[in-house]
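Extended Data, panel c. Modelled sequence:
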Amino acid sequence: MKLKKLMALTMAGVMTFSLAACGGGSSSTTTTGSGDSSEEASDDGEAASGDVEKSVAYIVGNLGDKSFNDSGETGMAQLREMGWDCKTIEAGDETKADKWEDTMLDAIDEGYHFIVASSTYRDIIMKLAEEYPENQFVVFDDSMDESEIPDNVAFIFYAQNEGSYMVGQLAAGMTESGVVAVNVGMDNPVISDFVTGFINGVQDYDPNVKVVKASVGSWTEPAKMKELCLTQARDQNADVFYQVAGGSGTGLFEACVETGNWAIGVDSDQYAYYKDSENPELADVILTSMLKNVGDSLVAFFEQVEAGDDVWGKVNHLGLKDNAVGYVDNEFFQENVPQEVRDKMAESKEKIASGELEVQSYYDFADESEYQALLDSVAP
């Protein structure tokens, strides 16, 4: 057993947040974590490029979600083309959480200098950052008090509330029943920030529109999501659905196909993904997707690292003005969304980017009870 792995085996404990993913390097391989990464390492057990300062191990749950994870994958592909040695390790969903730390330790043992992962893995990263000060760690899609961030850790935080505000306006403008839904994979502060922005967008567009919100409890259960949406359509008359649910989100699109309702995707252009997939009919219900440009942000981050910019020991905030979030404005969107709704969304985009409009965030609440009061205030 490797020394680094042996040192860490007695220290478990994971805070499960939203799963994320990224791509592998041109001279590395994409691997699947199973607890014994010795079978998954690159051929010589070291970062293939030999340049430790330009080697990235990107720890992901599972690729293929056509959403958040795959968006990050595009960033790794771009970095690879730029000469970085990037390795992707698929660590599995929350049922494999007890193996996640081993996965990171193997990457460090193989010589990868930068360890990159989403908020899912924050607790593990913060512990390993203390144990391995010679490595540098990136936690994206998360935030924390900067006084608690070590000098070898950087956070990337996205203003998902800003992008969600605009698709909330879309939902309010497109509903015929006066009830819209936002369904999530699991509840955590980042996801609650999506929900907060969405509700505020709905209410600012039309305060009479109600919002139902529910959690599937998993990022990988589309069947459960489909059943949930069908129930909301039948029992609560919801007719526009926004998914923030990773791989579970496919079930929302399937439900909308069945009921004839509109859907809103998340993180990536899900219309484009499904239009070219084996299930192109799913694309025909996706009016737009709220974009979280994970891949672009990771490329930009490592360009800053290469330039020697001050990114460590802090939270790097990225929002609409940085093109880190937004929404898809494609031909399908333009054909199916009335001009007045599109104009309102475009107006908000300009105002948010300029700072004229400040969108409420989950992180603005004093405590969880204030967030719950918001949910209660818009419930049918």
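Residues 1-29, 32-52 have pLDDT under 50 and may be disordered. This feature is highlighted in the accompanying rendering.
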